[in-house]
Structures are given as structure tokens and as C-alpha cells.
Amino acid sequence: MPTKSNPSSVGGSCHCGAIKFTVAFPTRFFAHCYCADCRRAHGAPVVSWVGVLEHQLTYEQGEDALVRYDSSAAAWRHFCRRCGTTLLFGGERWPGEVHVAAANLDGPVDREPQAHVYYDRRLPWFSAGDELPRLGGDNGVQPLGSVEDAG
């Protein structure tokens, strides 16, 4: 049975509040991405994503304010039509799954961050200050070796 200390979901929204949603647990992953597409879509050196199956994401309001942008031939992003907040990511590589920008969630999820993906594509002036695995290569999730080797 869910409790306050062990919830079964977390809410989230865009910056202006036009779009509100709920993410049901369990999540599939929690990772920090350094690829150029994520960096540019969010205007940040790194973007943290929480992955869930599509049916685990429900809209409480504003689904009609959600706009889809095909960021590549095989991937898309959803953002708020009103304020521009990037909320979701998905693509052919992850059928039936949606990735939710963790910064837009109103509370904690059911796991801690697990890895840094596409770490070898990070901006040269930014580095992670933890011991999570650094992954990279063509698919973004190949082991890069030790923290020193990845930098």
C-alpha cells in the first residue's frame, strides 16, 4: 500500500502550469544525458530523464497544450505550447516508453540516478561530481571505464 514515504506516483507540470501530469511507479531508469540534442532542447549542459512505459504517464490537464517536435527521423520531444517547457522525449529505440524530464517532477521518484549517458559528448567545461557510471559511445550506453578515463 502506498504511503507518503513510499508513494506510488509523482506529479509534474510545465513552467506555466498549463500541463499537469502524473507518473506512476515503478520507473524503468533514471539517467543524466549529455547528448547535444538534449542539451540544446533544454538549454542546459545535462538533462536528467526518468523512463516509464507510456501507460504510466497520465495527463491531469492540458494535454491539448502539448506540442510534438520530431527532433530527428527516429525521435521526438513534447513541449508546452504556452511556455515552451520541454517535458517528454521518446523514439523508435524505446517503443512503448516515454522519458520524462526529471526537473519537471514535483517530488522524488522511486530510484536514485543510475548513470551518465553520452558522457563522452559532454561540454568540455562540465563534469559530473559523483561516482555514477559514465557511459557513451555510438549508442550512449557503452562503458567508458573509470571516471578519469571518461573525462
Sum this structure up briefly:
This protein has 151 residues and is mainly β. Helices cover 7% and strands 38% of the residues. A hairpin with a 5-residue loop joins β7 and β8.
How does this structure look, described?
The chain has a single domain (9-150), classed as Metal Binding Protein, Guanine Nucleotide Exchange Factor, Chain A. The protein is 7% helix and 38% strand. It has helices spanning 36-42, 147-150, and strands at residues 9-13, 20-24, 29-33, 47-53, 57-61, 66-72, 75-80, 86-91, 97-101, 115-117, 135-136, 142-143. The chain has a seven-stranded mixed beta sheet. It has a three-stranded antiparallel beta sheet with strand order 1-2-5, with no helix packed on it. A two-stranded antiparallel ribbon has the order 11-12. Strand 7 (75-80) and strand 8 (86-91) form a beta hairpin. It is globular. The protein starts with 8 loop residues before the first strand and ends with a helix.
